[in-house]
Amino acid sequence: MTSWLRGYGCVPLGVLLCVWSVAVCTEAGDSACWSPGVSSCVECLSRGPQCAWCFKEDFLDGVGPSQRCDLPLNLLSRGCEAEFMEQSEVKVEVNATISSTQVSPRDISITLRPGSEASIMVAVKQLERYPVDLYYLVDVSASMQENLDHLKTVGVALSLRMTEHSSDLWLGFGSFVDKPVSPYINVHPSKISNPCSDYEIRCRPAHGFHHVLTMTGNMSEFTRVIKRQRISGNMDTPEGGLDAMLQAAVCQRAVGWRKEAKRLLLLMTDQPSHLALDSRLAGIVVPHDGGCHLENNVYTESTRMDHPSVGQLSDKLLENHIYSIFAVEKQQYQWYEELVRLLPGSYLGKLGLFQAPNLIELVVDTYKRLLSQVEVSVSVEDKAVSRYWVSVLPLCPDGSTDKGQTCSGVKPNQTVYFNITIGLRSCPDGGEDEDVKVFVRPVGYNESTVVRIHSKCSCSCGPGKRCNDDSQSECSRIRESPNQEQRPDGGIITDSNRDSHWRCRANGSDVDCSGRGVCECGRCVCEQGRLGAVYGKYCEIDNFSCPYQGGVVCGGRGVCLLGECVCEDSWTGDSCGCPISKDTCQSADGLLCSGRGRCVCGKCVCDDPVRSGDFCERCPACQSTCQSYWKCVDCHLSHGLAQKEAGYCNNTCSSLVSFTANLSGHTGDQWIQCLYISNDGCRYLFQTSTQAGQTQIHINTRPECASSTRLVGTFLSVCALTVLSGLVVVAVSRLLLQKRGRSPGGAAEGGGYHCTGKDLSYIPTTNEKTVTYRRDRPPDRPLEMHVQVPKLPLGDPWLY
Length: 800
Known about the structure:
Blueprint: H1 3-6, H2 13-27, H3 41-45, E1 52-54, E2 69-70, H4 72-77, E3 85-87, E4 91-95, E5 103-104, E6 107-112, E7 117-125, E8 132-139, H5 145-150, H6 154-162, E9 169-176, H7 189-193, E10 210-216, H8 219-228, H9 241-250, H10 252-255, E11 262-269, E12 294-295, E13 298-299, H11 310-319, E14 322-329, H12 333-340, E15 346-351, H13 356-372, E16 373-380, E17 388-395, E18 406-408, E19 415-424, E20 434-442, E21 449-455, H14 474-480, E22 484-486, E23 492-494, E24 517-520, E25 523-526, E26 534-535, E27 541-542, E28 548-549, E29 552-553, E30 558-561, E31 564-567, E32 571-572, E33 578-579, E34 597-600, E35 603-606, H15 630-639, E36 657-660, E37 672-677, E38 683-691, E39 694-700, H16 707-742, H17 747-750, E40 770-774, E41 784-788
Parallel strand pairs: 6-21, 8-9, 8-11, 11-14, 14-15, 36-39
Antiparallel strand pairs: 1-2, 1-3, 4-6, 5-7, 7-19, 9-10, 12-13, 16-18, 16-20, 17-19, 20-21, 22-23, 24-25, 26-27, 28-29, 30-31, 32-33, 34-35, 37-38, 38-39, 40-41
Helix pairs in contact: 6-8, 6-13, 9-11
């Protein structure tokens, strides 16, 4: 056992381990940061945003690298200034140079370390009479012939109706059928050019997507284009609607989406749609790349790329700020109901017939719902999605915080706020810094917020870029070149003069590192004791050689520094066991120790040793306040009624004594109610109060001298007299009997009484008592006298 443990004698090992664990927790930030395995700045900061690394070169000379990692407050108390700390910094900077109308701010920069998080507030304002772009995407398979005819009157009527809600409505048009490959269509040469040849009808060839009309505000042009449309045909039931939707969303220039407009994409079909991987039936295995592939307004990659996945389509709709509306037949409503749940900002309309009034109502109702509902979508770049987490809390105009990421019932010109928290779980595998973008997109809005996150995973450690950890220590470099050692002046010490242990010994000492460490490279590397840390140039300092309280160094309320406890703000004392606050000594009356003591180390020390209790409130040997004034009251009752003798009692008690017939006017918290019983049995009420150093006594002049009190006295007197008389009678009777017994031929013979024994058949009643008197002489002729004394029945009252 090392020398510094010898002083503990036979302390059980379990106690030492317990003390050590508590000391480590106290000194090392509740073990959240400190760990014996932490040897570098990067490892330290990866333990959490609350941790800091001290890169001060002479910090706790000789201490291990793990002691450099701790809570900033603990490092400060141990001598590491704030400018020598590398710690987690969360910075949020807003770029106010980018103007915004609906979404603000538009550009935010955040710096995060692993385990840290930052919150930002994004405001979304709902504008009134917003411009609207509506793109009709229509299934033109043969079953949709009648529905296509109904569209011819929609354009003008919808434009007139939308004037109530929007100042500017533009319309566009596109069509789709399915992938023009087998088994989706009939690939017979006669069927490819005219799928309807069996019905002697001229149809257009099947196609994945055909953009027909770019956005325009000319309703007549829209109607003219609709009238020219012809149906097509395919073989299987599902259609290629999702393929066409993605192209309509991403081909913004061809479609003509306006930047400042609300964008609505209306899909009309009477069948379900193909999903991703369905194209394998046709031998198409290449996933969709999410790009625009239009040539002469026709989708060119329909036969080479698979249908997009629902998630891919959702991302593209959000990225391009497009709401989707599905107008479907009742038979397919359930299938599209499941699809809409996976597409943010999507709406589903159940239509019995695709007639113009029904379509107009669907579009108008959807637009009104869009204006009253604000929703955001937050996405992280794919390369870092697993290292970040995001939470969204909406703050709606009515003051509610709806669950999810949506506010409903929003009116024009109202603003919705979204509190968005972004946290960094971990750094990349290489531990290098990286920059990541997080996109906050209000669904359907043409503005969004870009959050640029800089993940700080490395340590700069000040201008010198020296963290003083294991990776930069002199010994680690010397271990790489074991045949040489570096002098403090920069020179090299070779093996010939390697003995540098003298550098590890204090003046006059022949022991390396005070016996509590090892000398490496001319410097002491202190051992980590079970009770705490050992440090100093010669390992002469530790953080556990301070007073203990409750088995914990400094009572767990401070840190040990150079043998003395540095207490927290609210504690003091050698072992930090005394609270600075005196609240624990304040009694219920608001006084400190009831006004009879001092508060020492959070406890009351009574001035008078006869007092005790937590607040010096107990005094078993003290007279009560009332008893202490009995002599005073007795004196004034005897002499105070006569005014000329009023000064007689001043030496006995205060002269501020008054007699009153009514004490009700002197009731209150400051008055004490007392009772005095005089020698004649009368009870006097009196009140005492001490104010301004003088005692006042008010004595009630109407004592209670009740008849019951006198009756008790009379009864006691009668009882005493009766007992006395009985004793006299007994004594006289005994004397007479003795004399009679000594006379010759006494009454015993003449009376015919033979004292041969007692009559054992006699049993006294409950109201009788047998008293036997026996004389001692003559011994041969004893004489007994039987006297019956009636007993008092238990239930009868005393009579006197």
